[in-house]
Structures are given as structure tokens and as C-alpha cells.
């Protein structure tokens, strides 16, 4: 079983500068390899250059520029070239499937935030011993202190350096045996995620929606207004105040992201500890937040009819703020580690079907919260009805479980 751990690093001022230089040089390598592929295809009879060819050139590149490329790990530079190769493989896969291709782009220094080390001990070393401060060693940087907030189980396989704003993190992947499952509780539950409530379950319980993005919207708008004061100038001419304003906006976005992750982890952990089986809707969030298509006016070719884009934009913002996709991914991961069962079901008409009689109609849901069956008269909260129908569709209600 592969598990990832993410720890905050506390580098010294000199180490932070060296880490930034590592990212800069790997970004330069990535962009140079991308430029070589573009030139070969455009000017050399559409020749395609693969990873093997570019990896074989690394030795000469390192020997030519020892100060920049020769000081870093050879394996990490190979991983950067593999990263570009994967980007091209994904591009050609999307072309063949008819999706939007998305040709690999050049990366700016501030947009290249990760360096991978494919093997612990090759260019990096994770050093965690009892009765000793945890450190991680990077070639060309030295031993950096790490705030290890939990023990690492299993053998460390790969190590990644990651920058988020002004913070530095180390990400480990470990190979560990399947953990012991949690004790059985004899309970199964269906859940229905939403916006008014973050989550409703089939037992009639609700988890409020914290709306972290909305709560921080005022501070974020203030920081963005301060950033807009500075004129757009060349990147190498940006002032210290401009960089500080950019950092403030980035820090607020990072704060919202951490709050959203914390809420998702705690909610998922509670569900996994209490229930043996969990059913949820199989949501296509990318389609749900897609902008509506414009409606041309048949009487006037230069204008368009109202298509509800403003209301849809507000709904999309609320969906993104709730973070359903992140929550469901975390729930699935925790359930796998705990030996719990996760079932995803078809979400169609889960809030319009009556659980007692099975009658399905749009009129069964007169308001956002109220469910009233026009056939049998059953009344309940619409989100609770949706969670019960999710549980029934998953076939978990017939299990030996304590469900309502």
C-alpha cells in the first residue's frame, strides 16, 4: 500500500535561497527541453524527441554548466524530464480522444514549485531517528530541519520538494503493508453533499457548510484591490511592494485551501470511524460547474439572449468553495486504509424519488429543503431523502446495519 506524508520544513535563510535556486534551475531545464522538442518538430522535418534522447544529454549539460546544473541531483533532473514527457503523453492522449489538447507550456519561475527525487538516498535522504530532530538532506542544500507532526510508517520510496507561497514542504511516499481494519460497527450510511448543508446522511444528521471561501472573501478582495494599485510592468521591474502584495493574495488563498482540507479530513474521519459502509453520489463536478452556452438572438445577430450565466457563476463558486471533489477523494482514501466499503451510485433523481413508495416526480420537491411526495404524502428534508435513496441504490440498506 502506497501512502503519502507531507511535512513542513524549516530551512535557514541560506537554505531557503539554495532551495529557490534548485527550483529555478530545474525550471530552466524543463523549459529548455520543451524548447528543444518544439524546435525539432517545427524545423527538423517534424522530428519527435523522446525522453531517452534528452536524458542522454544530461551528462553534457551538467559538465558544461557545473555551477547551475552540475550541483543538483542527476536523478531529480531525470525526473523533471520525465515530467515533461508525461505532459506530452497526456497531450497526445487528449488529441486522440477528441478532448481539448492543452499543449505543454513554458513554466515561469514562480509557477514551477516541485522537484521530485525518485529514490530515497539518491540526491536526497530522509533522516528520522528517535531522540533526534528530523531532517531531510538535499544535494546542494544540506540538512534541512523538518516539523514531523506524525510518525512515518513503512519504507520511504520517493521524496519531493514542494514550495507553497513562502513555505517549504517535503512530501514522502512510503510502501507499507495493509493496515489493520477498524473494528466493525455494523452501520451503513448514505450521504448527500450539498451547498446549504455540506453533508446530509441517511440517519437525518447534517454537517454545516463552513463556506471558507466566503468567510475570507472580504480580506481577499481587499488584498486583490491593493495588488491592482500597482501597474503592470515587466517581471524584472516589479517592485518590492508589488511582490509583497502578490504574496499577501497567495497567502490568503493558501489559508482557505488549508481550512477546506482540514474540514474535509475531519468529516471523512468521523464517517469512517462510525460506519462500516458509506454510499455517495457519483458526481461529475467538471460538468456541474461548466458555464452555460450562449444563446444567440435569432432576431438580432449582434446580441444574445439571457442564459442564466450570472446565477450559474454564483452556483459554480459555491460548489468550488464546498470542495466536494477533495472531500470524496479523502473519504475514499481513508475508507481504504480503514478497511471500510465505499460505493458510488447514480445521482439522478435521488432527491425526487420517494423512499417509501418509490414515486419519482419533480413536484415531490417543492422547495430546496422540503420533500413532499405527491403520491403517498411522505414529508422529510430533501437532503435526507437524497441520502436515503443513495443508500438504497447502493444495496447497503439490506446489510446488517443500524440505519434509519
Would you write up a description of this structure?
- Helix content is 41%, strand content 21%.
- The two termini are 35 Å apart.
- Helix 1 crosses helix 4 (74-97), helix 6 runs antiparallel to helix 7 (240-274) and helix 7 (240-274) crosses helix 10 (324-338).
- The longest helix has 35 residues, at 240-274.
- It has two domains: 2-175, no CATH class; 188-211 and 248-393, no CATH class.
- With 404 residues, it is of the alpha+beta class.
- It has helices at 13-43, 51-56, 58-64, 74-97, 212-215, 217-228, 240-274, 285-288, 309-322, 324-338, 382-393; strands spanning 2-10, 114-117, 124-127, 135-138, 142-147, 155-164, 167-175, 188-193, 197-201, 206-208, 277-281, 295-297, 300-305, 341-345, 370-372, 379-381.
- It has a seven-stranded antiparallel beta sheet with strand order 2-6-7-1-5-4-3. Strands 10-9-8-11-14 form a five-stranded mixed beta sheet, sandwiched between helices.
Please, how many helices?
A: 11
Strand order of the largest sheet: 2-6-7-1-5-4-3
- The domain tally reads 2
Order of helices and strands: EHHHHEEEEEEEEEHHHEHEEHHEEEH
Major sheet characteristics: 7 strands, antiparallel
* Shape designation: globular
The strand count comes to 16
Q: Could you list the spans in which at least 5 consecutive residues all have pLDDT below 50?
A: 400-404
Indicate the proportion of strand residues.
15-25%
Structural class: alpha+beta
Distance between the termini: 35 Å
**Helix share, percent:** 40-55%
Structural Rg: 26 Å
Mean pLDDT equals 90
Amino acid at each position: 500500500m502506497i501512502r503519502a506524508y507531507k511535512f513542513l520544513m524549516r530551512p535557514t535563510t541560506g537554505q531557503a535561497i539554495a532551495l529557490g535556486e534548485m527550483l529555478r534551475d530545474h525550471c530552466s531545464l524543463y523549459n529548455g527541453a520543451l524548447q528543444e522538442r518544439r524546435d525539432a518538430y517545427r524545423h527538423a522535418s517534424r522530428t519527435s524527441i523522446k525522453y531517452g534522447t534528452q536524458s542522454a544529454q544530461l551528462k553534457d549539460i551538467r559538465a558544461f554548466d557545473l555551477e547551475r546544473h552540475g550541483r543538483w541531483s542527476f536523478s531529480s533532473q531525470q525526473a523533471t524530464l520525465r515530467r515533461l514527457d508525461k505532459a506530452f503523453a497526456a497531450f497526445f492522449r487528449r488529441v486522440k480522444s477528441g478532448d481539448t489538447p492543452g499543449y505543454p507550456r513554458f513554466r515561469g519561475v514562480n509557477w514551477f514549485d516541485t522537484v521530485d527525487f525518485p529514490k530515497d538516498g539518491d540526491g536526497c535522504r530522509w533522516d528520522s531517528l528517535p531522540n533526534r530532530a528530523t531532517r531531510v538532506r538535499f544535494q546542494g542544500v544540506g540538512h534541512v530541519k523538518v516539523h514531523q507532526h506524525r510518525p512515518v510508517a513503512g519504507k520511504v520510496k520517493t521524496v519531493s520538494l514542494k514550495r507553497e507561497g513562502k513555505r517549504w514542504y517535503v512530501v514522502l511516499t512510503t510502501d507499507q503493508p495493509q493496515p489493520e481494519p477498524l473494528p466493525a460497527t455494523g452501520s451503513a450510511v448514505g450521504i448527500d453533499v450539498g451547498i446549504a448543508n455540506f453533508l446530509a446522511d441517511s440517519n437525518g444528521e447534517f454537517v454545516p457548510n463552513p463556506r471558507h471561501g466566503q468567510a475570507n472573501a472580504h480580506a481577499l478582495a481587499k488584498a486583490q484591490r491593493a495588488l491592482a494599485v500597482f501597474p503592470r510592468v515587466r517581471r524584472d521591474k516589479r517592485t518590492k511592494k508589488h511582490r509583497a502584495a502578490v504574496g499577501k493574495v497567495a497567502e490568503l488563498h493558501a489559508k482557505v485551501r488549508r481550512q477546506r482540507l482540514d474540514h474535509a479530513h475531519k468529516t471523512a474521519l468521523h464517517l469512517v470511524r462510525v460506519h462500516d459502509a458509506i454510499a455517495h453520489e457519483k458526481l461529475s463536478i467538471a460538468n456541474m460547474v461548466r458555464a452555460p452556452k450562449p444563446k444567440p438572438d435569432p432576431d438580432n445577430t449582434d446580441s444574445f439572449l439571457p442564459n442564466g450565466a450570472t446565477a450559474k457563476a454564483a452556483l459554480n463558486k459555491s460548489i468550488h468553495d464546498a470542495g466536494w471533489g477533495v472531500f470524496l477523494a479523502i473519504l475514499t482514501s481513508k475508507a481504504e486504509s480503514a478497511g471500510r466499503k465505499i460505493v458510488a451510485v447514480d445521482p439522478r433523481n435521488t432527491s425526487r424519488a420517494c423512499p417509501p413508495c418509490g414515486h419519482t416526480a419533480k413536484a415531490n420537491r417543492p422547495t430546496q429543503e422540503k420533500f413532499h411526495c405527491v403520491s403517498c404524502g411522505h414529508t422529510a428534508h430533501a437532503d435526507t431523502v437524497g441520502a436515503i435513496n443513495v443508500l438504497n441504490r447502493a444495496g447497503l440498506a439490506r446489510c446488517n446495519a443500524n440505519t434509519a
